[in-house]
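Researcher: We're teaching a course module on how sequence relates to structure. For the next exercise, students receive a sequence and then see the predicted structure as tokens, so they can try to spot secondary structure elements on their own. Here is the exercise chain.
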Amino acid sequence: MTETPMRNALRAGFQRGGIELRHLLRNGKEMASHLSNVVVALLVAGFVGDDVPGTRTPMAHLLLAGFAAYLLFQVGMINLPQILVTEREEGTLLRLRATPGGIPAYLVAKCLLVVALAVGTLVLLLAAGALLVDGPLPHGPGDWLTLAWVTTLGLLAVVPLGAAVGAVLPNPREALALIMLPTMGLLFISGTMIPITSMSVPVQQVAAVFPLKWMAQGLRSALLPDTARTAEVAGSWELPMVALVLTAWAVLGFLLAVPLLRRAARRESGSRLSARHEKAARSGAPT
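Model: And here is the predicted structure for the students to work with:
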């Protein structure tokens, strides 16, 4: 059977992604940084008392569901852009420019890496939460199915978008500052830390534009009892709207990611790479 360019790119991407995943698992420093997010979530949940207003659902359960959504969002919108910017500065995109199907294969590899990282982090958070702080878990097959499709659509929404963001960020030193502030802002207005109904209507409307709010709402529907839906804006989980918004962001992300990565690769040259390394050397930064 004749190999098509797309099939070659997918195969190369999965091979590269598997190699990068193994390297990540062997990197103790990197793994510790990801595990620290789970530890912080568990500590916060362990010290939170009371119930969600108007319900008998523990506030700690809402927090853990919100942290689960945020950790998925963080991997796509913070970790992935930083990886892409760093590797662009190191000349990875310049090398890919001369490789047939290099950019699609690279994007597939990064998607595989961050999806594995995100799902692993989610499983660890839910398992450790259930064991250590009596955290929530899905109650039946329907809830497990909801957890699976919300996680899948959520990652499809944020991973390509994170790749697109990483393609346009200037450099690793400025990347974190540029993406951290808006991401932390979304964390606080999207109903991940406190019930979204406790916020003003304009804030709720801003949060509803972005995927994190719907990821958190979808995960709450899978992890919390049905009575907790009374604390939602519409008084229900709105799962069709969750699916619609996340799908729209997924389509937008895919439409942006590959062209922007190709554009970033076209702009790379040996002289630009050398200039960046010389500048980094003068400033004392590692190259």
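Model: If you want an answer key for the exercise: The chain has eleven helices and no strands. The chain has one domain: 5-266.
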